[in-house]
Design a protein that fits this description.
By secondary structure, this protein is an alpha+beta fold. The protein has 4 helices and 16 strands.
């Protein structure tokens, strides 16, 4: 199996630093030979900072950056999502393909959280005094990462990104017309919202999620409406429709009238029965109305029924 060579130029300080700088303390009598060299299955990094702790932390951050870069050069994951464009009446009118590369991010590589100075194969640091009497530290780390371990990290990353892309494509392929239950529609919407919240804002797929959510909004707002099933002076029955199809729902509508009193609603699964007192306050004409409003996903869907 081909082995990988990892190399980062060290921040050499002996003889190449400003001539007036002087090493006044070090972690060992002699600098190890790996500094400034090439490490097979190792990262060799260095960092400079005003304090030893800061220098060590900067060096560890560079180890993480180098691992991210090494994974980024080998990942195969990319986004290729087909999004359906839906017209106001629910008919699929066209579709478009969105493609983008997936950039490698630290949060997507759990291994990075386990990186620690205690796991380094070796380290070496020096304390240096400048001509103005100020001091700084240079910290060198020899950190192990075998070719097989890197391959495993790349495979894990590719698998994770493929799962994200597959989930995103599944969300993009949803057609609300296939549902006969409003709760299932809203569960799908909520699931995508949570999925979007789990993506980085600078991830191109985050913007794709917003596009799909907008499509969901369009499908719901453009196709949900109320249909009056039956109406008389005792009760009115309405149903929530998605296009031409009556759907199941549990949402309770708000009802008001210009003359009817004692209004009560009763859910019947895919319809709502509204009973009322017509005789007490209504006139014998066609201007007696009953307004019915469902709130779905913050959107109001209303209709006015005239009771004669």
């Amino acid at each position: 199996m081909k082995r990988f060579l990892f190399f980062v130029t060290a921040l050499l300080f002996l003889g190449t630093a400003v001539a007036a700088d002087k090493v006044i303390q070090s972690s060992a009598k002699r600098a190890p030979g790996w500094i400034g060299g090439m490490g097979e299955d190792y990262f060799i990094v260095s960092a400079e900072a005003p304090t030893l702790d800061e220098a060590q932390q900067k060096a560890m951050n560079r180890v993480r950056e180098e691992i991210i870069a090494a994974i980024a050069t080998q990942v195969h994951s990319a986004t290729s999502i087909t999004i359906r464009e839906v017209t106001e009446n629910g008919v699929i009118d066209s579709h478009k393909d969105i493609q983008s590369e997936v950039s490698v991010k630290a949060a997507d590589i759990p291994y990075l959280a386990s990186i620690s100075p205690s796991l380094a194969s070796d380290y070496y640091w020096v304390k240096v005094r400048r001509s103005d009497k100020s001091v700084y530290y240079v910290y060198h780390i020899l950190y192990p990462l075998s070719a097989s371990k890197l391959r495993m990290l790349v495979d894990e990353y590719d698998k994770q990104q493929k799962q994200i892309n597959d989930s995103l494509q599944a969300f993009a392929s949803v057609n609300m017309a296939n549902y006969d239950d409003l709760n299932k529609m809203l569960m799908q919407y909520t699931a995508l919202s949570r999925f979007e919240a789990g993506l980085h804002e600078d991830d191109n797929r985050h913007a794709i999620c917003k596009t799909i959510l907008n499509g969901y909004d369009k499908m719901l707002a453009g196709n949900l409406h109320i249909e009056t099933i039956a109406s008389d002076r005792q009760q009115t029955t309405v149903a929530l429709m998605y296009g031409p199809k009556r759907i199941q729902y549990t949402v309770v509508p708000k009802v008001k009238s210009n003359c009817m009193t004692a209004i009560q609603t009763k859910s019947e699964g895919n319809a709502t029965r509204i009973s009322y007192d017509f005789e007490t306050g209504c006139y014998d004409d066609d201007q007696n109305w009953l307004d019915v409003t469902f709130t779905v996903n913050t959107k109001k869907i209303s209709t006015r029924c005239y009771i004669k």
